[in-house]
Amino acid sequence: MIRRTALLLCLGAALVAGAAWWLRGAPPSPPPAAAAAAPPGVGALGRIEPESRIRKLAPLGGMAVTRVDRLLVREGETVAAGQLLATFADTPQKDTAVAQAEAALAEAQASLARVRAAGRPSEIAAQRARIAALAAAEEIARHDAVRSERLVPSGAETAATADRNRFAAARSAAERAEAEAQLETLLRPRPEDLAVAEAQLASAEAQLDHARADAALSRLVAPIAGTVLKIYARPGDQVGSDGLLDLADLGRLDVVADVFETDLPRLRPGATAEIIVPGDVRRYGATVRELGWQVRRTTEAGTDPVAAVDSRTVEVRLTLDDDGRAALLRRLNMQVQVAIRP
Predict the structure, then answer these.
(1) pLDDT number for residue 187
(2) What is the distance between the alpha carbons of residues 83 and 225, in angstroms, rounded to a whole number?
(3) Is pLDDT of 22 > 50?
(4) What is the pLDDT confidence band of residue 19, given thresholds at 50, 70 and 90?
(5) In this structure, which topology does domain 56-87+214-247 adopt according to CATH?
(6) Pick the CATH number of 42-53+249-340 from 2.40.30.170, 2.60.120.340, 3.20.20.100, 3.40.50.720
(7) Prediction pTM value
């Protein structure tokens, strides 16, 4: 009886508690989890480099030994695209070859014109006059032959005379035909002569193109507009493995950062960054312009003695803002720290 009474009391307490919970409403839900923290930025080492890259200019003559003849620029000078920068020792020799090829071309052109013209106007006029004279002589010889043939039966002419007059008429006709053929030659060139002259002209043109291309190799022109950064050889010097000079367009400067391959998914073109220059309290802005295509071993060594020296990185190019360009214009290849914002 006592156990039954206790059980009923417990059940009643549970009902009262449930009713109270229903009257008060459900307890408040737990507070939502804090928003996910923003992804961290990306840090890397980089170097200052012109957007155009630094162009090492050298003679285009392959492995031939080349000495500088004239140097037409100075370090720090601004040049235009296509401007002549230097000439080399073999320039006079190659210019002479060009002059010879031009003379050969002129000769081939004159020869072709002569073949096409076939004969001079005076030669053609003289040949026509000769044809007219031979035609008149043929007519006279033909009449003499006809008259002699008629007189042979009457005895006024002998058969021998008639034969001579007939042969003379035939010879006159042959001479006239020969003169007409010569006139045709003067008026129209032979196809084989014309083909030979045209082939000689084509050969002369090809030789001239070759000579001009060879002469261009003895000169160095600027492939882009830019500034001469450094000169490695002077007049009289042999051009070595460093080339003749370095050229770059300094209108826009880049920061080339070596970003770890694991940080690449957090980068995007257009992201802003801060450039930290050792020894400079100022910070310069930059914008991610392009991401590299290849993963390679890092090329920038830091000061951390325990850092991995064989890390795999991707080259990322950032465009410096105007303030950074003005301040770092003379610090090409300088190592800087790059902090790319998320």
Answers:
(1) 72
(2) 9
(3) no
(4) very low
(5) OB fold (Dihydrolipoamide Acetyltransferase, E2P) (2.40.50)
(6) 2.40.30.170
(7) 0.63
